[in-house]
Amino acid sequence: MPHKPPNVIALYPGSFDPITNGHLDLIQRGSRLFDRLIVSILRNDAKEPLFSVEERTEMLREVVQVYPNVEVDSFDGLLVDYAAARSATVLLRGIRAISDYEYELQMALMNRRLAPEIETVFMMAHEAYSFISSRLVKEVFGLGGSISGLVPPPVEARLQRRLSKSKHKGA
Predict the structure, then answer these.
(1) pTM across the whole model
(2) Are 49 and 56 in contact (CB under 8 A)?
(3) Of the residues 93, 96, 138, 158, which is catalytic?
(4) Which helix (H) or strand (E) holds 126?
């Protein structure tokens, strides 16, 4: 009977701007599958994030502290290079819909070409979270809609503070 290799380290990369309950669901489930799960924030200067990498790191650490085998980090450059530097052999990716799959398949095949020793594992989003994206959360929140239940409470509180600061600046 095949056995699981010892100490499987997985990376769950993303922008997490902000972290959603969909992300948290994948983190919780991934923490059960792998010996270590590194949630890695992509540093992408081309995008204009709502929260800085440091703020996203703080939010993630706050909500994943209940999982002892999960850590939070950030990276830039090629994901497979970062994975190799962290001794990760698995990339964890979430799939919400067919549209996600097409993009994720392209990325997985390129990553396999660059580093065939690193496997990509796709996890289906829980149906309760299959429509949630950070972009949609920011859009709904920015227009005054309720995001309760879509993001962890500490993240919602930070969004409220960010919105109230930006309203005061514009006043």
Answers:
(1) 0.89
(2) yes
(3) 96
(4) none
For residues 3 and 16, give the distance between their C-alpha atoms in angstroms, rounded to a whole number.
33
Q: Are strands 119-124 and 90-95 parallel, antiparallel or unpaired?
A: parallel
Q: Is the pLDDT of residue 171 over 50?
A: no
Please state the rounded mean pLDDT for residues 141-170: 84
Q: How many CA atoms lie within 13 A of 6 on its CB side?
A: 0
Sign of the torsion angle spanned by Cα atoms 152, 154, 156, 159: negative
Residue 47 annotated to the active site: yes
Of the candidates 130, 91, 86, which has an alpha carbon nearest to the alpha carbon of residue 108? 91
What was the pLDDT predicted at 163?
77
For 12, 27, 59, the CA distances from 131, given in Å and listed in that order, are 19, 17, 22
pLDDT, tens only, 60-87: 999 999 999 999 999 999 999 999 999 9
Average pLDDT over residues 6-16: 94
* 134 tagged catalytic: yes
Identified catalytic residue from 93, 134, 138, 158: 134
Pair type for strands 90-95 and 36-42:
unpaired
